[in-house]
Amino acid sequence: MRAAGGASVRALAWVFWLLAANAPAWAADALSLWEARSERATVYLFGSVHVCRASCFPLDPAVLRRFDASARFALEVDLADPRLASLFDAAARRVPGAALTGTLSPSDRQRLRAVLDRFALTSQDVEPLRPWMLAMLLTLKAAQAAGFETALGIDNALLERGRAARKPMLALERPEEQIAAVAGGSETEQADALMRLIGQIERDEVPAMLESLVTAWRDGDAPAIAAHVETELTAAERERLLTARNAVMTRAILSAAREGESLFVVVGAAHLVGDDGIVARLARAGYQLRQIERGQ
Questions:
Q1: Per-residue pLDDT tens for 257-272?
Q2: Which is nearest to 45 in space by CA: 56, 54, 32?
Q3: Does the pTM exceed 0.85?
């Protein structure tokens, strides 16, 4: 999802969990790209970061060759779905009469006001928003302040490349499914996540965190990224944002692969790693997996 509900939604869905024992091992020259082969089909799995810098480009030739050679490509959702903006807006806004500040303690409200001031936002700007959406907004503001942009996200670049080549595109999720996952959790759980983020902003941790994630993505270093995110998401968040969605997207990939054409999948890197990640799920479905390295 992008713009009104696009890459901003996916910007929070970063990677988690250590690689499963039966998943391909990380190599020093690895890319965030896996090849999955069966007797019938070849599927490429490319982990994306949804906010990046100009230095993230150009993408490695090994990625672009496989993308260009694939018959189709797949993204998490269809960004052209006309329902996307209205569904996102409905999930992002509070019930009329409910106040965001009512879910926060007086001291937390004071901390929130200080962070809003930092990004030239007012209480009136954010009062209609549910806590998860405010956390999304602050994440993007902090990323932009550090020089990262959603317009430079990896999935955005490959979407444009695919459209230019008139390559057929497959959506792995329905918009309702992704929005329900990102907007899920109780108001208390959402407020807790918001305050964790505010603590990171107060300590100026966001720039270094994003830099380390992009470096690990560029190096294909899944264990390094997973070790970081293991500390950032609660078990409930992992289940809602990643595990449940991985099952849905894996089913869509397997269904598409039955048609026999090659498929290049672009999803947040979160969805590829771990015992419940798409890589491990395809391995359990009988696919042969290998992580692609530079120059291959």
A1: 999 999 999 999 889 9
A2: 32
A3: yes
